Amino acid sequence: MTHLLSRTVLTCLFTAWVCCTAAAAPYKPDPGPYTVETYTEEWQDVARDREVPVRIYYPVDAEGPRPVVVVSHGLGGTRDALSYLGRHWASYGYVCVHMQHHGSDDAVWRDVPARERMRTMRAATSNLQASLDRAADVPFVLDTLEAAQAAEDTPRYGQLDLEHIAIAGHSYGAWTCMALAGQGNGLNGDPTLRDERIDVAVPLSSPVPRNPRSYDRAFGGIDIPVFHVTGTLDTSPVSDTTAEQRRVPYDHSPGRDAGGKAQYLITFEGGDHMVLGGPPMDGAQSRRMMQRMRERDGVDTSRDPVIHGLIIQSTTAFLDGWLLGDADAIAWLDGGEMEETVGDEGVVESK
Fold first, then answer.
1. Domain-by-domain residue ranges, the chain?
2. Is 178 strand, coil or helix?
3. Whether the predicted model's global pTM rises above the 0.70 cut
């Protein structure tokens, strides 16, 4: 009898140990079931006499209208930015439309001598018209998608679920996300550029207003779920935003505990500004230069694939959960599995 009891106790202890030490299940870490087709187009906004180039990641053979993610690059970037996210999300059925914003794209630096590029980039951050232009690109792109969805003679006829739209972006693109999500811009009574068609946002490395007294006013009107991403080394290379300030949009946006919508924040340990934007797409020379610069700043670039993998998992769960209403995805986000999956690589917060 004693032997039987001892065996039972040992079995219970072993089961408890397994439960406590088992790793959390990852969330869709590998490419999804759909082959992804990519193509580029140049869309013309006649009303503004402005071209908006796009790169589209499309899930081949995905049945029914598909949800849409519009993606905005950072200062000096192109429509090729955040390709690691667009391709992954598309493999799970999302149509990802990556915009290129003339006036704040690679034309800012490409023909400038290398020694002058950083100065030119910093000067470009004060171009108010470029900010307004890139923000206005988003409703134009949504209008264009609506027209394509409704026109029987277009390949996207009936293929887009425009009742479920997300926006994502890095750095300047994160500002674009937050502006279209309802961030106040501090101008003329603090109006917003909110587009009600956008349901959720994924900003990576958000900039912040210069005046801390405006934080509550700027972010208090955010009325959609937002997934914020930053890192402990996420200092801006072109402005005065510090790594510590990157959490300001999360801290000052109302979460579920304050009657608002779901807000999440991951802060990756050792994550710098460049890693969150993904691998650079402008050629081997630029990639080598960026890597040398990051290593000079003490960034462990060998961790890039780990951070990218965790961003892929967590943001896909966010889109599935809060854009499409998948209860299992929300449970992964809120039930501790996301936190366990990230582990020592970062800190997960939600409200």
1. 32-350
2. helix
3. yes
CA separation (Å) from 341 to 30, 152, 286?
14, 44, 32
186 secondary structure, DSSP code = S
- Give CA separation, 305 vs 10, 73, 102, 271, 288, in Å: 40, 20, 30, 11, 17
Domain 32-350 has CATH 3.40.50.1820: yes
Phi, psi of 226 (to 5 degrees): -135, 135
Q: Amino acid identity of 246?
A: R
Choose among 103, 53, 102, 58: nearest CA to 79: 53
Do residues 8 and 294 touch, judged by C-beta distance below 8 A?
Answer: no
pLDDT band at 288 (very low <50, low <70, confident <90, very high): low
CB atoms within 10 A of CB 187: 9
Which tops the pLDDT comparison, 25 or 236?
25
Q: What order of strands is seen across the sheet that includes strand 66-72?
A: 36-45, 50-59, 95-99, 66-72, 160-170, 200-204, 226-233, 263-272, 346-350
Beta-carbon count within 10 A of 113 CB: 8
336 residue type, one letter? G
3-state secondary structure of 164: strand
322-350 pLDDT, tens digit per residue, is: 999 999 999 999 999 999 999 999 999 99
Determine the distance from the C-alpha atom of residue 124 to the mean position of all C-alpha atoms in its chain, rounded to a whole number. 22
Which pLDDT value is given to residue 100? 97
With 80 as the cut, is the pLDDT of residue 14 above it? no
Q: Report the alpha-carbon distance of residue 172 to residue 169 in Å, rounded.
A: 8
- β-pair partners for 69: 96, 166
Q: What are the residues whose beta carbons fall under 8 Å from the beta carbon of 31, sequence distance 6 or more?
A: 87, 88, 91
What are the helix (H) ranges across 151-247?
172-181, 215-219
Token output for 305: 């694939």
Close Cβ partners of 41 (under 8 Å, ≥ 6 residues apart): 53, 54, 56
Residues 6+ apart with CB under 8 A from 255: 261, 262, 263, 350, 351
CA angle 111, 116, 122 (to 5 degrees): 100
The label of the residue with tokens 């509550």 reads 216
